[in-house]
Amino acid sequence: MSKSTKGAMNLRNTYAPSGNIYQSHKATIANIDAFDVSQVLEHRKGDSTVVVLDLPAVIVGMTYDAALTWYTRMWQAVEPMLHYKAAVLVIARQTKTHKFSKHTAIPHVLHKAGWDWQKEICWKIIEDTMHQFPWPCFHLISVFTRGGYQLNELAHLSVRDMFTMWYDALSPETRGVSPLPVEMYKLCYELLDVDSTSTVLDPFAGSGNSLQAALGLGANIIAVELMKYRFNDIVTKVKQYE
User: Fold this and answer.
1) Which residue in 160, 205, 231, 237 could disulfide with 223, CB within 3.0 to 4.6 Å?
2) The pTM is what?
3) How far apart are CA 92 and CA 89, in angstroms?
């Protein structure tokens, strides 16, 4: 077998989800594609849902139309299974020409589906993220709600200040690719009044930091992660809270 064939097989094995699902009293974590999230959303609990969309960096390189199609398909899989009272925390990295606002792809999808844009919490310009992209990008956190979901406005300044401190402490080559720390997510959840009656859904769980923060506040979690090695890491982290 050639090196290129072995490389392709290893890559396919890395990205091909196993379909495994870890379940406990507070957590449901699945190694599946985000578009198959409806398989686990039936496990949601509590009175409200907070969706964390820490959007994959690959979206930055898409055209607007391609991103719009991708977001629409993803949201059609997620939205029907949510509580009516819900909030969406969007963490995005967008190209300079597509500054994150109500007029770009994911806000367009959310707004069209009846979600209300509440506020842009904070944003920073990333000048070249590890040389992956030849353009400046925007790193932003925004909130959308529906069903009369109320924000805790007192937490807004704390989120913005912590984001600035965290971002400024990063080295230039890690800005834009480093996951938000657990404490940063906790502050975002305080803005959204997440507690033991909430379910936090993260269809792109990645580092698992969003889930650790939610469990630390007593919330229920539902998570989807495509990569098997990340899925295993997330399960290990989550078990520490149980």
Assistant:
1) 205
2) 0.81
3) 10
Q: What are phi and psi of 45, to 5 degrees?
A: -135, 175
In sequence order, the 6+-apart residues with CB closer than 8 A to the CB of 187 are 155, 158, 159, 162
* Rg from Cα positions in the chain: 18
Domain ranges of the chain: 20-239
Let me know: does 201 contact 211? Beta carbons within 8 Å.
no
Looking at the chain, the number of H-run helices and the number of E-run strands are: 8, 8
- Angle at the Cα of 45 (from 40 to 47), degrees rounded to 5? 135
DSSP single-letter state for residue 134:
S
Beta bridge pairs of residue 30: 21, 224
Q: What SS3 state is found at 144?
A: strand
- Structure-block tokens of residue 68: 């719009």
CA distance to 65, 120, 226, per residue, from 36 (Å): 22, 29, 10
Residues in the chain predicted with pLDDT less than 70, given as ranges, are: 1-16, 43, 45-46, 56-62, 93-104, 122-139, 172-173, 175-177
Q: Which fold has domain 20-239?
A: Rossmann fold (3.40.50)
